[in-house]
Specification:
single chain, alpha+beta, Jelly Rolls, 7-stranded antiparallel beta sheet, 3-stranded antiparallel beta sheet, 10 strands, binds 2-oxoglutaric acid, binds fe (ii) ion
Length: 284
């Protein structure tokens, strides 16, 4: 080992110890969840244990009726403007891979879904208080001509809040080649661990979590995922086909990284005048 490597390792250790104490301090500012009630909240139970929870399409539709409305709305969409963009992005690189499709949906249905009692009750149980809805978005993730994965396609922890759960509702079947969401089981239990380096390759993650499963969430339209994104996660780079999903971010009312002015990135009043358009995703 070179001297510079040992200095680097030492600095990282100091950073990690600092983070360990900061996390424990921040956790104490929030009410403690009633852990013994987890058995009544299956999604909260799995979140606590593994960091993520999933529902098959039929389980989603049974528990979250507005999810079925959104999946059906997608089924009847005029796909030509969306497929046109997918074709164009195929020859692009970098951040072009992610687009915003919320404009193609009814905002009230998206809000009804984000506020769904089953989802909110499970997250409330997990957090120990009612979550704040921070962001609602419909993502289109496209294959590009880049070899390499970038940004959200590489394992990372999200920094916005210590209490941060994101949900993903697939509107289209997702297999290994169309960009499944991936999660490193139990990596939410020590969120201070290797936080300072933002992006980690698969080798780094295997070294950090040698005994954890890497979960790759494939599924049919209507499959639902809920994850504590303080744990390591990514969306695999789509290779063959594009992915469409609804994502909702839930946090505390005092997130680390400021409040957003609106939950949507899209101005719905303009859409009623000129029709929906595929929008670039402004937060990447
Ligand atoms: O694209 C994905 O599946 C993961 C995206 C991500 O990193 C996030 O939602 O924080
Ligand atoms: Fe993320």
């Amino acid at each position: 080992m070179k001297i510079s490597d040992s200095i680097y390792a030492f600095i990282n250790l100091i950073k990690e110890i600092r983070r360990f104490f900061l996390y424990h301090y921040e956790w104490r500012k929030h009410p403690k969840p009633l852990f013994k009630n987890d058995c009544h909240f299956p999604l909260a139970h799995n979140l606590r244990l593994l960091g993520y929870a999933t529902l098959s399409a039929s389980e989603t539709f049974r528990n979250i009726p507005s999810a079925e409305k959104i999946v059906n709305a997608y089924r009847f969409l005029d796909m030509s403007p969306i497929e046109q963009v997918v074709k164009e992005v195929k020859y692009k690189s970098g951040r072009a891979y992610k687009k915003e499709l919320a404009a193609f949906f009814d905002p009230n249905t998206l809000l009804e879904y984000a506020n769904d009692a089953y989802i909110v009750e499970n997250i409330s149980q997990y957090f120990g208080f009612k979550p704040m809805i921070r962001h609602i978005s419909v993502w289109l993730d496209c294959p590009t001509n880049d070899e390499n994965s970038i940004e959200t396609q590489i394992f990372h922890r999200d920094p916005e809040d210590i209490k941060l759960v994101k949900t993903y509702l697939y509107l289209k079947d997702v297999d290994e080649l169309s960009g499944p969401f991936c999660y490193v089981e139990k990596s939410h239990l020590d969120p201070w661990h290797s936080f300072s380096k933002h992006y980690h390759n698969d080798k780094d993650i295997k070294r950090l979590y040698p005994n954890s499963n890497f979960i790759s969430c494939t599924g049919t339209a209507g499959s639902f995922i809920m994850a504590d994104v303080n744990g390591f996660h990514r969306g695999i780079k789509p290779k063959d086909d594009y992915r469409v999903l609804v994502t909702v971010y839930y946090s505390s009312a005092t997130p680390r990284q400021g409040l957003r002015e609106t939950v949507f990135d899209v101005n719905f009043s303009e859409i009623s005048k000129r029709g929906p358009k595929v929008q670039d995703y402004s937060y990447l």
